[in-house]
Design brief:
- The chain is an all-alpha fold.
- It folds into 3 domains: about 160 residues, TorD-like (Orthogonal Bundle), CATH 1.10.3480; about 70 residues, no CATH class; about 110 residues.
- The protein has 18 helices and no strands.
- Helix 9 packs parallel to helix 10, helix 10 crosses helix 11 and helix 16 runs parallel beside helix 18.
- This is ERAP1-like C-terminal domain-containing protein.
- One of its GO terms (molecular function) is metalloaminopeptidase activity.
- Belongs to the peptidase M1 family.
């Protein structure tokens, strides 16, 4: 148009801002675009979100508005359009009184991404504490066992929340998971695991249960007659935090014991942690030509094997190693070329974000979680 309506909107927003009130654009998330605000407006929105909720509204903000604010904030951080401290302040505000599961659904995913990004940083143990405290309220509301009449969304949030808190080092969550797994192993029929948390509990048990839990999981994989349980066990075997156990999982994947179409599961599970990704890169890259010979024509397997190797640690050194490894053209990618390109760009983006975030997160932790 001629800009008249835009000018009127701008004037109105300035009036609202000058009064110290909040506003949201793209109300109820009806359009497909991100919204950023001034630091003063973000602060007003934090205060509104953190206020006690007497209904599904938080000081007039609908659940859709609150979910959009969380989604937009963390997306803007990844795009280098918003300081990470602003998004983390928003997470703290949500953690105080948020009742809507959709908002938590979004925040859990965003915190998971930061947990992955920061897992190799020196400040990571302090960040784990912050995540545990942010999620303390929602943790009290969601039980490990489904309750009659609970909202359907709880079933999707429950395993991800448990997984997030375990990665955050919540010892009560880890102990509970290990106890449930131990009881299940002792009497599978008498102590069945709830289907929506089975894979999460399997991974936690292998990650924190040591060699004993690994052997128990291997037995489940070898003896189970249920395809889903067998696949869950295979993925869990890649979640070990011990290099010798990771070596066993990788060797098993390449030995012929695992069907070719399932080989990418342990690869991706190993690569899910920075420690595992580093191990996978250093161990598997000398075998690249053999891997290509065996799996290179499998379009549903090879691309995921390749992308799993292009993971952390999120450092310039890793980027250089990957670039040099493929520089002479002797390492074939074949049908994985597109997946490799995506994985490499994703890695570059994470390296850049970690470089931007590190000092800011340390400062934020000093202020909020000293």
């Amino acid at each position: 148009g001629d800009g008249v309506e835009e000018a009127k909107l701008s004037d109105r927003l300035q009036e609202i801002a000058a009064s110290g009130s909040w506003f949201v654009l793209n109300a109820d998330r009806t359009s497909f675009f991100r919204v950023n605000y001034t630091p003063a407006q973000w602060k007003c929105l934090f205060e509104a979100i953190s206020s006690p909720q007497t209904s599904d509204q938080a000081a007039g903000l609908s659940p859709a508005d609150r979910q959009a604010l969380v989604s937009d904030a963390f997306a803007l951080v990844r795009a280098d359009r918003l300081p990470v401290a602003t998004a983390l302040d928003l997470a703290v505000a949500v953690g105080k009184h948020e009742a809507d599961l959709g908002v938590w659904d979004e925040l859990i995913d965003d915190l998971f991404m930061l947990m992955d990004l920061y897992s190799g940083a020196d400040f990571f143990p302090r960040f784990q504490v912050a995540v545990t405290q942010v999620c303390s309220e929602i943790r009290q509301r969601i039980d490990w066992v489904p309750e009659p009449g609970e909202p359907k969304r709880v079933a999707t949030i429950r395993p991800r929340l448990i997984g997030l808190l375990s990665r955050a080092g919540d010892q009560k969550v880890i102990a509970k998971a290990l106890d449930l797994f131990s009881s299940h192993v002792a009497d599978p029929a008498g102590n069945p695991l709830n289907a929506d948390i089975r894979q999460t509990l399997f991974k936690i048990s292998v990650r924190y249960g040591g060699e004993e839990a690994y052997e128990q999981m291997l037995n489940i994989y070898n003896t189970s007659t249920f395809p889903e349980e067998k696949r869950n066990a295979l993925i869990a075997l890649g979640a070990a935090d011990n290099e010798s156990l990771l070596q066993r999982s990788l060797a098993m994947a390449l030995s012929g014991e695992v069907r070719n179409q399932d080989v990418f599961y342990p690869f991706m599970a190993i690569a899910a942690s920075v420690k595992g990704a580093s191990f996978l890169w250093s161990t598997a890259k000398p075998q690249w030509n053999d891997l290509y010979e065996k799996f290179g024509t499998l379009t549903t397997t090879w691309p995921y094997i390749v992308s799993s190797m292009i993971g952390g640690p999120y450092t310039e050194k890793k980027l250089t190693e990957i670039t040099e490894f493929f520089a002479d053209g002797s390492k074939k990618l074949g049908c994985a070329q597109a997946k490799y390109n995506q994985a490499f760009e994703k890695l570059k983006s994470k390296v850049a974000q970690l470089g931007r975030d590190e000092k800011a997160v340390i400062t934020w932790l000093d202020v909020n979680f000293p």
